[in-house]
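help with this:

***
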Amino acid sequence: MPAVTVHTCAHNQPEGSVEIEGWKASVICMLPWLKTAPCCAAVTALKVSDAAATVEGEFLIISCGWALPGAGVALVHDRAHEPCQGTGMRARTAFGVARLGLTATGLVALIGYFQYTLGVSTFAIANFFSYFTVQSAIVSILVFMSAAVVALRRPTDPAWLDMLRAMVTTYILVSGVVYGIIVWQSSSANYSIEVPWSSQFLHFVIPVFALIDWIVDPYKARLPWKYLGWAIVFPVFWLVFTLIRGPIVGWYPYFFLDARQVNGPGETVLYCLIIVMIITGIAALLTGITRLKRMPRHLLPPWRNSA
C-alpha cells in the first residue's frame, strides 16, 4: 500500500478527506477525552506509513495515535467514491429533515385524533391523555424533534438520545401491533371499531417510518442488551397507574384491563403478559439491529460500543 496523505479539517469539525487508490471518504479521529462526539484533529498533510494504514472490509483503518497524543484510530469509510467534503453532514441533514417531517406528522395526527374524540359522547380529557398510544405519541414527538435538531447540528447522536429513540420507537410499534390486533378481533365479533385517518397515522404510518429511520440510520449507538429491561419500565408504571385509576373513575383505556369485560383478573394478567412479551420482542429487534456488524467492534470508540 502506498503512503496515504490525510487532509483533516479544522479543529472540532466532523469532516476530513483521504485519497488512496480511489478512496474518497470522511476521516474521523476518535479522541478519548471528547466523549460526546467524534471530531477531527487540527492537522494537515499528515503522512501515514504503509504499516499504519490497513484495509478491513469496507473500512480504511489509519492509526494516528503516534501523531496526536492520546488519539486512537481514524476510521475512513469508502463512500462509493463520492466527494468527501460534507458527505457525512449531508446525510445527517437528510436524517434531520426526515425527523422534522416525522415530528410534524405526529403532531398533526395527534391533534386530529384529539378533535375526533371530541365528538365521542363519553369523551373526557383526562381519559384521552390516559391512553398508552397518546402518551407514547407525545413523548415520541419530543424525542424525534430533539433527534432532528441534533442531526442538523452534530455528526452523530449521543448514546442517551439513541436510547430514547429506541424506547419511543418500541412503544409506538407496540401501540400499533396491539391496536391492530384489537381492530382485527373486533371484525370477527359483534362490534366494529372506527379507525379515522388520525388513528391510522398514530398507530400504523408513523411507527413504520420510525422503524425505517432506526434501520437505515448508520450513526446510531450500539445498544446493550440491558436495554430490554429499561424498555419495560415505562409500560409497567403506566399499567400500575391505569389499574389503580380504573376502579376510581370507572373507566379503562383498553377492554382487556377491565376484568368485567373479560373472563376475570386471570385473563387480564394473561393479556398483560402477552403485551410485555411483545414489548420485549420489539426491543430485542431494535437492539439487534444496532449490533449488526458494520465495522470491527474493537475499532469503535468506547461510547459507541456498549457491551
User: Anything to note?
Assistant: The chain has a mean pLDDT of 75.
